Amino acid sequence: MAYFYGMKRGLFIISGSILIFSSCGTAKKVVKKEVTLAPVVVSAKNSEYRAAATRVWDIVNTRVVMRFNWNEKTANGQAWIDIHPYFYASDSLVLDAKSMEIDTVLLEKNNKQVPISYSYSDDELRIYTGKTETRDTVQLYIQYKAMPYANKTGGSSAITDDRGLYFINTDHAIKGKPMQIWTQGETESNSHWVPTIDKPNERFTTRIELLAPDSMQTLSNGYWAGSVKEGNHIRRDIWVMDKPIQTYAMMFAIGRFDITKDTWRGREVSYYTEPEFSPQAKRIFNYTPEMIEHFSTITGVNYPWNKYSQIVVRDYVSGAMENTSATLFGEFMNQTRRELLDRDFEDVVSHELFHQWFGDYVTCESWSNITLNESFANYGEQLWRKYKHGVASAERLAYDDLMSYIQSAGRGADSPLVRYYYNDREDVFDRISYEKGGAILRYMNAIMGDSAFYKAMNIYLSKNALHAAEVANWRQAVEEATGQDWNWFFNEWYFHGDHPVLSISYDYNDSAAQLTVHVNQDQADSSGYVYDLPLKALLINGDGNKVVDWDISHKQEVFTYPYKNGIKPVIVPDEGRLMPGAIFDMKKPWAFLSQFVHATGYTSKRIAITLSQVYASDSSSQEVIRLALNDTTPGIKEHCLSVLRAEKDSKRQQKFEPQVSLLAFTDSKNAVRAAAFDVLGAWKIKTDRQQLLDAIHDSSYAVAGSALNALFAVDSEKAYSIARTFFDTKPKSTLQSSMWTIIGKVAKEEDVNLFEQHSVLAYGTGKFILANGLYYYLVRVKSDIAFEKGVNVLTGMAMNDGIKSYRLGLGTWLFTLKDVYADDQKASKEKMATNTKRRAILQNYIDKMMAAETDEGNLKRYKELGQIN
User: What pLDDT, on a 0 to 100 scale, did the predictor assign at position 614?
Assistant: First the structure.
């Protein structure tokens, strides 16, 4: 499903502030420590058993014609549905038809359409066909009006809205914002625009006909089958999907797009972007044809659809969605050439593309089995990185994903990967289905070996092609590929919740010249569950390094290793961190230094950097830092610099400052240079002024923004003056964030006008960047008039955004500001009066915002925040 920030990614982090932001997308899984947080227990209390949907009728084909009422945000639809009883004869059927007005229902009989009895209530259309046998396919004709904005919506942390059909700025409310119409089907929302059986185990072919202005382009599943002129500058575009696809993967989009063409083995690959971004389209969707080739190779199943299109839309309610043959992405993908120098969203592209096999070609038969879609897409990102960018890049992504899951789950407390009990289907779109599931596949791959794992994928895809599947089908494919029984693994990882937590301690006996390693399973599992864990460890000793087997199957395990040539051995447990769980490694600093020097993997080096800082003053720990700053792997240098930002000891700062400065001004990687400038800023280091000014005008936004922050740390007025000069260049990304943060922290009264002017122009992540600076401004500005004007700007942003998760993220700042201006009995009378006045202003605007909020989930959260404040 939708690739989303923060699960993949529910939090967006800018300059230390945490914002609620659903659309994947994007501070991507920033992990600082090898630790676990307080347990978050997922309770099944009052949940229901969730069986796969019963197949009473089966749709063969759906043809739909859509005419749009752009200002009204409704659509007039005509649907022709070929359908037959699935197995047992039936005299009636029920179609999902949410938020609709039903005008006509006819039955095709003897080449004639005849009226038929029906009823419509509770978003269901019940049609009485008369007794119909399984072999008899009937055609229904339904004329209706889709009204997706008529009712309140739901959603989840992954897909924050379930309206199904979206009209973006079709009333011309926001000047300069493009008009678009697009759909979002997962989980069961396409029934907002076409009557259907809206379940994941339903499949049918489609013919989608869209009436659109001649000035706009359309996209849908399958191939373009031509256009028909409808008059008044309107045409009908016809799109045909000739292979059966699942209901939620139907899609269409309409808007003004440039179409950039590419190819894979002669098949069309296309990129739909706003005209401004079309020069960068192939870079935005980097390596797509090569990804298709790689995934076709490793699965042994060629890309199964006749074309692959990728489209970027505004106000998308998630990160991206793997609609069959036509993936839809949120506006975070709109990047300029300079932005692409620093980062792209290649992981999002590979994630959605792998779904074309796992999720589209074979689909989970129920939401309980969503792991068959999302875990594979998550792991697909790592498979692509390993192939294209090397093992270190793949390990970095895998480790970040694993830590993201563990930190959300707590100390071994979470739900099973396969969940037949849950309260709401949206609940299963979480870090368990995504990151934990991907980690489990990575672990399985390591145990099996690449050849067997790829063979298992091929068997699974081939045997279940164009059908729904459950986890048992994946297990059977694994067993067929390997010839081994895998029930133990699936029982342990797919049907048992929680995760292992290993505590590892070391006892060096110099007199016996022997190391004893104690491994305890310390997971907080109320059932007392003990995992069976086949692992590998790296043994470092005076006789060379070698990989040794660690088969951990008891609550406590003990391993012994002799000294060699008088040298104490060092163990790197689970080298590469393949186990989907937490490890507490209690080595001493000298042993972590040995681990850093001798281990070759990214993860082992990264862990050595992080955990050595527990003893930051130790000479071995400082040697780890020195070596890491000189490492050849950019990710290792980046991580080391992120650790050093928190260094407070002036002597250690002086020791490492020359290396950090050298990286800031000379490293070949933008991310490393930016991280180094972040350290210099945190340490308030006065570097060469001209070099710093040159860096502020670097082509990399990341380098320029971090350098500007470093200047602000030592010369705030100069940095502020420079920041004001950047408006005409329309900066993005880190530089934009730095600019607004600095203006906000300086908090000159007249600058409230800048926030007001630019708030109406900001979109996507730019809204949060501006709001973050405005938050700093409202904390510091002395003028009450400027304060209220700024609060009005922030409230307007929170009230008027089309994405409810954006509204919540922006609105939450008002409550945070109330806390900032809480009563302080130790403050002066003047300060207390200011606090009281500003709290009253904030409460007034909070009341105004809440009165305008239509989403019940947002209102509930606002009320909770009000109680906290």
Answer: 87
